[in-house]
Specification:
Helices cover 48% and strands 10% of the residues. With 481 residues, it is an alpha+beta fold. The protein has 3 domains: 83 residues, Integrase, DNA-binding domain (Double Stranded RNA Binding Domain); 106 residues, Tyrosine recombinase, N-terminal domain (DNA polymerase, domain 1), CATH 1.10.150.130; 197 residues, Intergrase catalytic core (hpI Integrase, Chain A), CATH 1.10.443. The strands form 3 sheets. A 5-stranded mixed β-sheet has the order 1-2-3-4-5, with helices on one face. It has a 3-stranded antiparallel β-sheet with strand order 6-7-8. Helix 7 runs antiparallel to helix 8, helix 10 runs antiparallel to helix 12 and helix 15 packs across helix 17. It holds the Pfam family Phage_integrase.
Length: 481
């Protein structure tokens, strides 16, 4: 029998029909090259037995195989044929090798399918978690949600104040904190917001800001359990980080009341103080002229609440947690002094809905009077005989008026009635249903107070006369004059 020999490289690439060569030792199969009609030379590993003739494709023979195709060089095809020859021999023949390869392919396909299924499940889980994460609200979302929850229960002034605090104390100075998820906020982030407020000397506001933050997080802890809630944001809160922060209580001067000299100095110079607008200055004078009405209630009034012919202004007192749902009307008589102030205000803001406004878009925010008093205290006017006037707040004007009435012998009952202080029980319910019922006694109180104020301002002596308003004419059909 002729000895089997290997093809030369020239013979291999020049195959016209088919040509073969042995692979390894005898009995280990042959490498078969076969030229196709297309001209390509297809390579096979071939193994013939007495009862079978099997071929396994090895690829296409090429001198310069192209990447990404089944093309191989002659050496590459020979190496692949030898590998199959060895593995087939180990398996017990080509048939068992093919069977083994089939099993491996099935297992590989199953493994790929399982891997693909796992990857798809992981992708869907990542997507689900991303959706959950996207639905989780930020710190900014939480505070906005809290503000919205207060719109029904709180007064418009409180809502405006919350919106202002969100902008000035939180969003503008700390945007990176506000973008954080609410559930990731910790006590140190709350301190980041509160410390600058405290350090600029606004210690009461720092405590107030903390209270709002505590309330906002308390809202977030329960908001997701409210039936019918329209906000789709979730917060997944577990703790209230604001509740963990403490603000040292400021010993506010609760007994602070201006002396007659201090009151006179404030009255005469507030309108000429830089940084204090004319309407704000008139607001302070109106608060004083009306016997120390609550400045917040006055700020909320519209022109429709004033009847200058009848000499009254109708205030709505809202105190406690009830907000708008617990309100009490308080009809305040106006002295000639107060009416004259309102006529000045009307010349400035008569075209706006509110008397006490700067641009007519909304009334003053509640913190504006505090800032104005601080401007006055920092000015050259806050001196008496070269001595600095001690600090005070707009709320102290109310206490000043109370003590002024006490000093000049105004009955405490009349003083309380004028200031709507401590009006509870049967008396409160009677006046709530009929605010004008107490007007005669209030007129008596404001007349006595105006006399005392005139003396404090140095306008009259103890024997001077002050125009009585007890016989002021009732409202005429023409409305406010």
């Amino acid at each position: 029998m002729a000895k089997r020999t290997r093809m030369t490289e020239m013979e291999a690439y020049a195959v016209k029909t088919r040509q073969s060569e042995p692979v390894g030792s005898r009995g280990k199969g042959t490498l078969l090259l076969e030229r196709k009609a297309s001209g390509a030379i297809q390579a096979y590993y071939r193994e013939r037995t007495s009862d079978s003739d099997k071929r396994l494709p090895l690829g296409t023979l090429a001198k310069k195989p192209r990447v990404g195709t089944d093309e191989q060089s002659l050496d590459g095809i020979r190496g692949e044929a030898l590998r199959i020859s060895v593995e087939a021999a180990a398996a017990g023949g080509i048939a068992k090798y093919l069977e083994h390869i089939s099993v491996q392919q099935v297992a590989a396909a199953a493994s790929r399918a399982a891997t693909a299924a796992l990857e798809e499940a992981e992708r869907l889980e990542r997507f689900r978690l991303a959706e959950i994460e996207a639905a989780r609200g930020s710190f900014h979302d939480l505070f906005l949600d809290y503000i919205e929850s207060r719109r029904v229960k709180a007064t418009p002034g409180v809502v405006k104040e919350l919106e202002r605090l969100l902008k000035t104390n939180m969003q503008e100075p700390h945007p990176e904190v506000m973008r954080m998820k609410a559930r990731d906020i910790r006590a140190d982030h709350i301190l980041t917001i509160l410390n600058p407020i405290w350090e600029r000397g606004s210690k009461v506001q720092a405590d107030r800001m903390r209270s709002f933050l505590v309330a906002a997080f308390n809202h977030g802890l329960t908001a997701e359990s409210v039936v019918g809630r329209s906000n789709a944001k979730t917060y997944s809160l577990e703790i209230n980080p604001a509740a963990m922060v403490k603000v040292d209580k400021v010993s506010a001067p609760v007994e602070r009341a201006l002396s007659d000299a201090e009151l006179k100095q404030f009255w005469e110079t507030v309108q000429s103080t830089g940084g204090i607008g004319p309407v704000m200055a008139l607001l302070f004078k109106f608060v004083i002229s009306t016997g120390g009405q609550r400045i917040k209630n006055l700020i909320e009034t519209t022109w429709g609440d004033y009847d200058l012919d009848a000499g009254t202004v109708l205030l709505i007192h809202r105190k406690g947690r009830g907000g708008q749902t617990m309100s009490r009307p308080h009809l305040v008589p106006l002295s000639d002094r107060a009416i004259a102030i309102m006529r000045q205000v009307r010349e400035i803001n008569g075209d706006h809905p509110w008397p006490w406004t700067t641009h007519g878009k909304q009334p003053f925010v509640i913190s504006s009077p505090t800032h104005a008093v601080a401007d006055w205290l920092d000015s050259k006017h806050a001196l008496i005989a070269g001595a600095k006037i001690p600090t005070f707040s707009p709320r102290d004007l109310r206490r000043t008026c109370t003590q002024l009435m006490q000093k000049h012998g105004v009955d405490d009952r009349l003083s309380d009635l004028l200031q709507a202080h401590g009006q509870t029980g049967v008396v409160s319910r009677h006046y709530r249903n009929n605010p004008e019922a107490a007007l005669p006694e209030k007129r008596k109180a404001i007349e006595l107070f105006d006399r005392a104020l005139a003396k404090a301002l140095g306008e009259v002596t103890d024997t001077g006369n002050v125009l009585s308003i007890s016989r002021r004419k009732k409202k005429n059909p023409d409305g406010m004059s």
